[in-house]
């Protein structure tokens, strides 16, 4: 990797700034990263869900997609490793490169390093540097170093974002439900959770988890790649190297013109150099002080004496004696002295331990033999049965049969309303409408069907007036049953008359 070719400004950053640098790189190359991601993950998602559906283990598809994330995370890593040098690879090039890119390090990240909290930080070391195994171990220690904690926190943050996005996709379904039908829908959803989700709902959850992972996983890889670049900048001083390179280029440009002029001047002076050298050789004599200073030269003996005394001063030069404490030399150990022979003592202790183990084993076997009548039948699966006469007989009460509807539902409902029992009157009206709807729509409802299930079944009624009437009855019953809001008597009478006319009840 050549630092001078990088398309980013290199400088020492904090870990959080380095993560932001990686996410900025991903936003710059978003299309090049997400297009091959979708092209690679969608077929795998379809194949895994089809196989899991055939095995009736749809949860296995979600687990395998989560476990294979390092296989797909190579795609944004490949794009970012090229994009940081200013080159954006195409989708076809990226997908073709996956057959070779990081193939040697991939088994480790799918097996023992799959749960590593610093996976996004260390994957570039194994898949981009191409060093030997021993060097990769040393490089992982150096790169991981002080950034390991931030990489682990990055994993947890991305996992929480994925969970929030998946739950948001599920919650979006409930936003589309009308408010008056929401209590029944939530009740039905809770019943499905307790009884077991159907296959179509499990497939929807797998799709929601894949969508969340497709959004968050490239950001996870990009943030780890930013941490990797920052650690290499810190350990290899890329920013200092680039600064020296820029300084060298600037100095080379500035000194090019003076250097050329100097070379030209030297070339012009070369013919006269031999003559001057000969003249200098003929008249070369050592220069003396009188020749240099001429009439200004003064030979001052007092100055020489003062300089000599100054050099003899111990404060200016000379030697000094410094006294300091030192440790006494410790006596060297006697190498000929042999340690005492303790082999006999250790042998005695080993024999005592061996006999102790034999005694403990014998006591354990004896205890097992004495207690065999108690645990042996249980071990065989035929434990002692208690006396059937002494065990209390428990009888479960059968659920009461559903109340039969009266022949004249309208009159019975009016009597209940007039008798001060409006909730029972509304319940009778609701049951009568459900029975009439089932008869006219020719549908079958499961036992204990909820209001939402009844409304979905009522959509098959041939007349729009019947569908609207049934929805009004269900709404009035839900307000009374769940919110405690009873209708006025006029509303009840009007709805009862409409139901009697629609379903042809006796009046």
Keywords for this structure?
single chain, 507 residues, mainly alpha, 22 helices, 68% helix
Beta-strand content bin: under 5%
Tell me, briefly, the overall form: elongated
Q: Identify low-pLDDT runs.
A: 272-281, 382-401
Major sheet summary line: none
Can you write the helix and strand succession as a string? HHHHHHHHHHHHHHHHHHHHHH
User: Percent range for helical residues?
Assistant: 55-70%
Number of helical elements: 22
Mean pLDDT, rounded to whole units?
78
Q: What does the radius of gyration come to? A: 46 Å
CA-CA gap between termini: 91 Å
What's the β-strand tally?
0
Structural class label? mainly alpha
Topology:
Elements: H1 15-28, H2 30-55, H3 58-67, H4 69-83, H5 91-97, H6 106-110, H7 119-128, H8 133-144, H9 148-175, H10 182-195, H11 199-236, H12 238-269, H13 273-282, H14 289-293, H15 301-312, H16 343-370, H17 372-380, H18 409-418, H19 422-441, H20 451-458, H21 464-482, H22 489-503
Helix pairs in contact: 1-11, 2-3, 2-4, 2-5, 2-11, 3-11, 4-11, 7-8, 7-11, 9-11, 18-19, 18-22, 19-21, 19-22, 21-22
């Amino acid at each position: 990797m050549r630092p001078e070719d990088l398309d980013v400004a290199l400088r020492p950053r904090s870990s959080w700034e380095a993560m932001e640098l990686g996410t900025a790189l991903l936003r710059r190359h978003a299309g090049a990263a997400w297009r091959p991601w979708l092209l690679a993950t969608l077929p795998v998602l379809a194949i895994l869900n089809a196989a899991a559906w055939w095995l009736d283990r749809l949860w296995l598809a979600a687990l395998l997609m989560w476990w294979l994330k390092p296989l797909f995370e190579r795609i944004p890593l490949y794009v970012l490793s090229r994009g940081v040098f200013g080159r954006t690879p195409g989708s076809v090039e990226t997908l073709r490169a996956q057959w070779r890119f990081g193939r040697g390090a991939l088994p480790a990240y799918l097996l023992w390093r799959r749960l590593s909290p610093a996976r996004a930080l260390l994957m570039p070391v194994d898949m981009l540097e191409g060093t030997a195994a021993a060097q990769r171990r040393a490089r992982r220690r150096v790169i991981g170093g002080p950034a390991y904690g931030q990489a682990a926190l990055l994993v947890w943050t991305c996992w929480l974002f994925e969970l929030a996005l998946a739950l948001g996709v599920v919650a979006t379904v409930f936003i589309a439900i009308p408010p008056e039908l929401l209590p029944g829908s939530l009740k039905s959803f809770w019943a499905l959770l307790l009884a077991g989700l159907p296959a179509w709902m499990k497939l929807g959850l797998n799709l929601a988890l894949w969508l969340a992972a497709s959004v968050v996983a490239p950001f996870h890889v990009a943030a780890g790649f930013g941490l990797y670049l920052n650690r290499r900048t810190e350990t290899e001083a890329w920013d200092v190297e680039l600064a020296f390179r820029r300084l060298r280029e600037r100095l080379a440009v500035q000194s090019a013109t003076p250097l050329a002029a100097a070379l030209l001047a030297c070339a012009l002076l070369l013919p006269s150099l031999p003559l001057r050298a000969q003249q200098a050789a003929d008249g070369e004599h050592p220069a003396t002080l009188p020749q240099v200073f001429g009439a200004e030269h003064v030979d001052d003996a007092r100055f020489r004496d003062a300089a000599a005394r100054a050099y003899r001063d111990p404060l200016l030069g000379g030697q000094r004696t410094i006294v300091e404490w030192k440790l006494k030399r410790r006596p060297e150990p006697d190498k000929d002295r042999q340690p005492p022979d303790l082999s006999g003592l250790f042998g005695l202790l080993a024999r005592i331990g061996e006999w102790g183990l034999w005694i403990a084993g014998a006591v354990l076997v004896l205890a097992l033999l004495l207690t065999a009548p108690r645990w042996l039948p249980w071990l065989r699966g035929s434990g002692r049965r208690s006396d059937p006469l002494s065990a209390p007989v428990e009888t479960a009460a059968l659920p009461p049969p559903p109340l039969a509807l009266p022949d004249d539902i309208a009159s019975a409902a009016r009597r209940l309303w007039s008798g001060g029992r409006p909730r029972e009157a509304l319940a009778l009206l609701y049951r009568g409408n459900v029975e009439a709807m089932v008869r006219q729509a020719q549908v079958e409802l499961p036992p204990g069907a909820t209001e939402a299930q009844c409304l979905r079944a009522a959509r098959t009624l041939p007349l729009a007036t019947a569908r609207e009437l049934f929805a009004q009855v269900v709404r009035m019953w839900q307000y009374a049953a769940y919110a405690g809001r009873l209708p006025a008597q006029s509303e009840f009478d009007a709805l009862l008359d409409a139901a009697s006319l629609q379903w042809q009840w006796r009046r």
